[in-house]
Amino acid sequence: YDIVRGLDSLKFPSKIVSVFYFTLSLINYLTQDLKETKNTLRSRGFVNQTSMFTYQTYGNIFAMIVIKALRKAEDMKLSMEARGFKDKIFFLNSNDSIGSEKILLFTIGVVLVKVLYELFG
Q1: Is the distance from CB of 68 to CB of 30 less than 8 angstroms?
Q2: Cα separation of 74 and 80, whole Å?
Q3: Chain-centre distance of CA 34, in angstroms?
């Protein structure tokens, strides 16, 4: 996802950044699913051979992955619509605190010191 942050920091259009983000997210999901499928086949004793059974198995796996990709894309679309997504992904670019956060932390510190002084002082 560093590529997406880089595109965002280089001021690429927000739609391109969003497309890259969702593409990488879907690729990550499908890669995990493929690994799980391979582990399942391995645990069931599947042996890679040049037979019709092997080709049918690979065809079924490919079809399942395509179907899962379409479902996941539709789920992501519905999820982002429900959250009010408008073509822009917002990133946390830095951990710099803004002025209001600094004032809040200072106020909490003063209150904490006062409470501790009253309890133990």
Answers
A1: yes
A2: 10
A3: 17
Nearest Cα neighbor of 89 from 3, 10, 19, 2 is 19
On whether the CB atoms of residues 58 and 34 are closer than 8 A, the answer is no
Q: Based on the number of CB atoms within 10 Å of its own CB, is 19 exposed (0-12), middle (13-18) or buried (19 or more)?
A: middle
CA distances from 26 to 12, 58, 84, 86 (A): 21, 21, 20, 19
Tell me which residue of 60, 84, 64, 61 sits closest to 72, measured CA to CA. Answer: 64
- 45: phi > 0 → left, psi -120 to 50 → alpha, else beta; which? left
Amino acid identity, position 56:
Q
60-103 residue pLDDT tens: 989 988 998 899 889 988 988 888 878 777 777 655 556 777 88
Q: Which residues contact 33 (CB under 8 A, 6 or more apart)?
A: 65, 68
Q: What is the pTM of this model?
A: 0.61
Contact 109, 101 (CB under 8 A): no
